[in-house]
């Protein structure tokens, strides 16, 4: 499994609206892409800004390409992102996930999950 990590920064005043926008755009597209294994949205507030970190999980590099295109290390942005984001970072990070564990579930070798 592969984790794809994207970060974005919004003014606090726009954070609730941006979360709804994320659900209607990126999360909707993640779910519609074959090979997506889920996503976590992390949010933290510092001073006047809300930082969003999306950690999406994918079964393969091919699955990531189905979502992001051939230049899969580039961030995927949507038309209204300009109205919310302070800056748009051009790239995301990817990490191999050798082990996954959630409370109440046994630790698993993720190769067995894909």
- Spell out the helices and strands N to C: EHHEEHHEEE
- From the alpha-carbon coordinates, what is the Rg to the nearest angstrom? 15 Å
Number of helices: 4
Main sheet overview: 4 strands, antiparallel
Number of strands: 6
Secondary structure layout:
Blueprint: E1 2-11, H1 15-24, H2 26-32, E2 36-46, E3 49-58, H3 61-68, H4 81-84, E4 93-96, E5 99-100, E6 108-109
Antiparallel strand pairs: 1-3, 1-4, 2-3, 5-6
Structure description:
The chain has 114 residues and is an alpha+beta fold. It has a single domain, classed as Alpha-Beta Plaits (2-Layer Sandwich). The protein is 25% helix and 34% strand. It contains four helices and six strands. It has helices at residues 15-24, 26-32, 61-68, 81-84; strands spanning 2-11, 36-46, 49-58, 93-96, 99-100, 108-109. Strands 2-3-1-4 form a four-stranded antiparallel β-sheet. Strands 5-6 form a two-stranded antiparallel ribbon. β5 (99-100) and β6 (108-109) form a beta hairpin. The longest helix is centred in the N-terminal third of the chain and has 10 residues, at 15-24. It starts with a strand and ends in a 5-residue tail after the last strand. The model is unreliable at 109-114 (pLDDT under 50).
State the main characteristics.
four-stranded antiparallel sheet, Alpha-Beta Plaits, two-stranded antiparallel ribbon, 114 residues, 4 helices, alpha+beta, single chain
What is this structure, in a nutshell?
The protein is α+β, with helices and mostly antiparallel strands and 114 residues long. α1 (15-24) packs parallel to α2.
């Amino acid at each position: 499994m592969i984790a794809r990590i994207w970060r974005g920064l919004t003014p606090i005043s726009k954070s609730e609206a941006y979360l709804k926008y994320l659900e209607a755009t990126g999360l909707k597209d993640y779910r519609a892409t074959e090979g997506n294994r889920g996503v976590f949205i992390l949010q933290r507030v510092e001073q006047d800004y809300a930082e969003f970190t999306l950690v999406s999980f994918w079964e393969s590099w091919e699955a990531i390409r189905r979502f992001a295109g051939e230049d899969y290390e580039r961030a995927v942005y949507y038309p209204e992102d300009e109205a919310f984001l302070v800056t748009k970072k051009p790239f995301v990070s990817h990490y191999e996930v050798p082990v996954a564990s959630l409370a109440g579930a046994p630790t698993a070798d993720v190769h067995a999950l894909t």
